[in-house]
Amino acid sequence: MEKSATAGLLSILIALSSLTGCDFIERRRLLKKCVFRLESVGVEAFSLNGVTMLMMLSISNPNKIEVALDRMDLYLYIDNRKTMNVRFNAITIPPGETKKIDADVSIPYAALGMTIAGKPGETGSLRYRLAGHMYVKTRSGFMRLPVTVYKN
């Protein structure tokens, strides 16, 4: 009798842990339905070596449950020129809400070339694009999902 009670308790614990795992994965899988938007790119400082920019990204969660993002590694493109890698840290977004995350990016002048200074004879604003991957943690490691965000 004691063995069957222990086996029953073990079965319940296994079932509960698998339900917790499903919720854990579901919170990350639903990131695909979120809306990513590059809110702003602003120059914070100039130095002898380059420019420091602050990038603000918003993520809207249209889902009915909270979603979790473990990290994003993106490349910043300015007027279609690949400049720097940008890393955004982990964030959770409650259902129906929008959260903003930011990252400081130090870009050497050599990586910018003439992009930020503008091109002779052209007017208008710069076009920004972030492209790369967001990472979601699973029990077997990280799952990589592609993401691209545009501004202008």
Description:
This protein has 152 residues and is an alpha+beta fold. The chain has one domain: Immunoglobulins (Immunoglobulin-like). The protein has two helices and nine strands; from the N terminus they run αβββββββαββ. It has helices spanning 2-29, 109-112, and strands at 35-46, 50-60, 67-69, 71-78, 81-88, 91-93, 98-108, 128-138, 141-151. It has a four-stranded antiparallel β-sheet with strand order 5-4-8-9. Strands 1-2-7 form a three-stranded antiparallel β-sheet. The protein has a two-stranded antiparallel ribbon with strand order 3-6. Strand 1 and strand 2 form a beta hairpin. The longest helix is centred in the first third of the chain and has 28 residues, at 2-29. The protein is elongated and about 45 Å long. The chain starts with a helix and ends with a strand. Mean pLDDT is 77; it is low at 8-21.
SS-based class = alpha+beta
Shape: elongated
How many structural domains?
Answer: 1
Q: Using the coordinates shown, work out and report the CATH topology.
A: Immunoglobulin-like
Model regions low in confidence, pLDDT < 50 over at least 5 residues? 8-21
Task: Give the full name of the CATH homologous superfamily.
Answer: Immunoglobulins
Defining key terms:
4-stranded antiparallel β-sheet; alpha+beta; 2 helices
What's a quick, concise take on this entry?
This protein is α+β, with helices and mostly antiparallel strands and 152 residues long.
